[in-house]
Design brief:
Number of helices: 1
CATH class of the largest domain: Mainly Beta
Number of domains: 2
CATH topology of the largest domain: OB fold (Dihydrolipoamide Acetyltransferase, E2P)
Order of helices and strands: HEEEEEE
Largest sheet: 6 strands, mixed
Distance between the termini: 96 Å
CATH architecture of the largest domain: Beta Barrel
Structural class: alpha+beta
Strand content: 25-35%
Shape: elongated
Number of strands: 6
Radius of gyration: 30 Å
């Protein structure tokens, strides 16, 4: 719809009608992310960030049975997050807690009853960075993410 005597072309007229709509859409696009943004994740507890993997290596000192939810192991080595659990010259005995999500592997077997006394084991535990360093009293508060075991080496 052009006014009589107007110097505006049809293209300019269309652009003038669309400008307010484009400004409205741009403003709405900026408001939506602000409205849906969540706060930062907690530093400790459930859903915390950042999480780190604590890798513990050692030998099992108990023989877990069917349905057991924990076992003991002597920790002889660890990554930097688990170094507080390694003592020289003797190994530190810690309790490893398991849950239904823990992945267990030993020579193709996938359940806890296949773990045996004196097995060599690697245990991965995921904890909040704020919960470090782990101690023998706090390591059993968190269930292991993965347990990989091998029979002892025969000399």
């Amino acid at each position: 719809m052009r006014l009589v005597g107007s110097n505006a072309t049809l293209l300019e007229d269309t652009i003038m009608r669309i400008k307010p709509l484009l400004l409205l859409l741009a403003g709405a696009a900026l408001v939506v992310p602000v409205a849906t943004a969540k706060g930062p994740p907690p530093k400790n507890g459930t859903g915390c960030k950042p999480k780190v993997s604590v890798v513990l290596k050692g030998t099992l000192t108990t023989d877990p049975g069917v349905g057991d939810t924990s076992f003991n192991m002597d920790v002889t080595r660890a990554n930097k997050h688990g170094k507080s659990l390694v003592t020289k010259p003797t190994a530190t005995n810690v309790t490893i807690t398991l849950d239904s999500k823990t992945i267990i592997r030993r020579n193709g077997k996938k359940t806890v009853e296949w773990l045996a006394l004196n097995d060599r084991a690697v245990v991965v535990i995921r904890v909040c960075k704020a919960d470090l360093p782990l101690t023998t009293g706090t390591v059993d508060d968190v269930a292991a993410k993965r347990v990989t075991a091998h029979p002892p080496i025969n000399p």
